[in-house]
Amino acid sequence: MASHEHRALSARLAACFDIRSAEIPAVLAGAAMFFFLFTGYFMLRPVRETMGIAGGIDKLQWLFTATFIATLVALPLFGWLASRARRRRILPWTYGFFVLNLAAFAASFLSNPDDVWVARAFYVWLSVFNLLAISLAWSVLADLLPVSQGKRLFATIAAGASLGGLTGPILGTLLVAPLGHAGLMAVSALLLGCSALCAQMLQRWRDRNPLPVHALNAREMPLGGNAFAGATEVLSSRYLLLICAFVVLLAIVSTFLYFEQARLVAQTFPDRTRQTQVFGMIDTAVQTATILIQLFLTGRIAKSRGVGVLLSAVPLAMAAGFLWLAFSPVFGVLAAVMITRRVGEYAMVRPAREMLYTVVSPQEKYKAKNFIDTVVYRGGDAVGGWIKTGLDMLAGHATAAMLIGALVALLWAGVGAALGRMQREREGGF
Q: Which of 37, 131, 326, 379 stands 20 to 30 A from 252 (CA)?
């Protein structure tokens, strides 16, 4: 009787979220992979933001530039691994390396808790880690789920990331006093290891529910090529170049808002503890709204209206938000626009961006995608930071930057709509 009730409940849940019964283990494993990854990352994120402000608002562009340079160094190393390891081994080996990094930072925070250079190194490291680790998790998902499944399942699986983004700040707030920063590093390392185990569970599910034989055999083979293949793949594809343009515009918009957030938080809340609390409150509001949209709206919009709608709706909302900020530059307005941007990115733009990679080759899914998600994204951050700094110096206030931001957001929307059309044209071949 209990087994029958369990099957009936599973069937109702599957129907509610447009999941087939055989896909439930994959959705659970994928959601858990993202949950553990994002919980570990968001435990540490408020600490990073406070460290960025502590170094001075006028120095933020240097941290962004250092992050971009560190990304340029890290990506060839990842490309070398991806060229030689079997596709199913790339994520666990990469995450294992990051676990060792976290152990080293934990030791550094224990021995030199007030060292400003350790703090800056951690800021840069976490900024590189979060893009590469998250991009790699999505690469695995795009590799294992074809486009028909991706449209239905990506948003539901991504809800695990949002739940982790909600749990992480809460755990960080509760644990930082008894464990300290070093203890948070250790807990985050453990969570990252759990994420890698969930990725392996997802691989085993695909083994039990195989794609065509040629795809199964290909997963057992290294990708080949060289450490810089991601860049050459991008330069040879109009589709990937357009994704680059979308990501650069997204990064510039995000950076404009990030700098404005740092300026207004520092101006409104001079106390560091209060700053961290404000960042944590924003994270909590963002993740709560994101989970609801991911579970009940994103997949249905992608299936009925297409990826292009998801890619262009948020940029249009940001254009309106920048105009609002230009004429009312206060913290309340900034918080509303920032929350809207982040909810829209996590709930709609991010799943839609990952759907774009379901119609590319395995080489492009791993190497080109990670090049775009790290080097291109952080390059956009660095460019956006220097543009924002230059505009503030020339104009003497942030209004000019917000008006420029509105124009950039409109261009971003146009690129998103064009990508949606190209993805739809490619879909028939996969």
A: 37
Give the bridge partners for 222, in sequence order: 86
Return the DSSP state at 212: -
Burial zone of 12 (CB within 10 Å; 0-12 exposed, 13-18 middle, 19+ buried):
exposed
Beta-carbon count within 10 A of 195 CB: 27
Give the Cα separation of 99 and 276 in Å (integer).
25
With b for 16 or more beta-carbon neighbours within 10 A and e for fewer, the 386-410 pattern comes to ebbbebbeeeeebebbbbbbbebbe
| Residue 383 pLDDT greater than 50, yes or no | yes
Whether 350 and 155 have beta carbons less than 8 Å apart is answered as no
Comparing CA positions, the residue from 249, 263, 234, 36 lying closest to residue 133 is: 36
Distance CA 312, CA 371 (A): 23
**What are the pLDDT digits (tens) for 6-15?**
565 556 655 5
In tens, the pLDDT along 208-255 reads 888 664 444 455 555 544 445 667 888 888 999 999 999 889 888 887
- Give the span between the Cα atoms of 322 and 314, in whole angstroms: 12
Task: Match 């951690």 to its residue by tokens.
Answer: 122
Using left for φ > 0, alpha for ψ between -120 and 50, and beta otherwise, residue 244 falls in: alpha
Residues 170, 291: Cα–Cα separation, whole Å: 16
What are the respective helix, strand and coil percentages of the chain, to the nearest 5?
Answer: 90, 0, 10
The confidence score (pLDDT) of residue 227 equals 45
0.70 exceeded by the pTM? no
CA nearest to 323, candidates 252, 409, 250: 409
CATH number of 2-427: 1.20.1250.20
3-state secondary structure 123-137: HHHHHHHHHHHHHHH
Instruction: From 199, 229, 255, 195, select the one nearest 402 (Cα to Cα).
Output: 255
Q: Does residue 221 sit in helix, strand or coil?
A: coil
More confident residue, 73 or 79: 73
Cβ atoms of 137 and 33 closer than 8 Å: yes
In whole angstroms, give the CA distance from residue 331 to residue 93.
42
- Contact (CB, 8 A) for 145 and 351: no
The angle subtended at Cα 159 by Cα 86 and Cα 384, nearest 5°, is 80
CA distance 200 to 32: 11
Q: Is the pLDDT of residue 56 over 80?
A: no
321 half-sphere exposure, CB direction, 13 A CA radius: 25
Written in H, E and C, the secondary structure of 386-404 is: HHHHHHHHHHCCCHHHHHH
